[in-house]
Amino acid sequence: MPEPMDAFDDVRPALDCLDLLPGPVAAAIRDWQGTVPVEQFHYVDTDPAIADTAVLVEQHGSWLLEQSANCVVVAGKRGGAVTLAACVVLSHTRVDVNGAVRRELGARKASFAPMDTAVGESGMEYGGITPIGLPGSWPLLLDAAVVDTPYALIGSGSRRGKLIVPGKALAELPGVTVLDGLGTVPGE
């Protein structure tokens, strides 16, 4: 199967594109300390109008769906306390918010965070939120299947552009917990 880089004409090292990334994402890449070399992080410029995964894979190849990952922000509530967390699953799956996420956060209730909260607290654009550069205090829940992806196509923090990074690099992000079954296939 081709890698995500094969779907785009202009793939550049992410380090060469820091000026195109939101501040927290650029800082996380610039200051990367993981064992996966930051030189394996790539940036591709994409049209903001096709930032949504379904439209992007329609334009660049349906095989990308298996190698794309979505990052969503959830709010776990217990009593009066709210915990924001990010969840990353392969794009052909959905985050198990009411099961795996709720249990992992120790919350009575979990739901997707309101858009203004997700955007305001992450410093990123809706539709482009990425696990790279999120607040260090947030739990980051990562589906094990994403870690097993040689290269994952993820958001860049804005609707314009995507990052292509080794799945195992995402397991080295701050606050990460790798979970089997965080992403569930709709209808199963």
Automatic annotation (TrEMBL):
SUPFAM superfamilies, sorted: YbaK/ProRS associated domain
Q: Which CDD domains would you find in this protein's record?
A: PA2301
Q: Which residues form the YbaK/aminoacyl-tRNA synthetase-associated domain?
A: 52-172
Query: Annotated Gene Ontology MF terms?
Result: aminoacyl-tRNA deacylase activity
Q: Which Pfam families match?
A: tRNA_edit
**Stated name of the protein:** YbaK/aminoacyl-tRNA synthetase-associated domain-containing protein
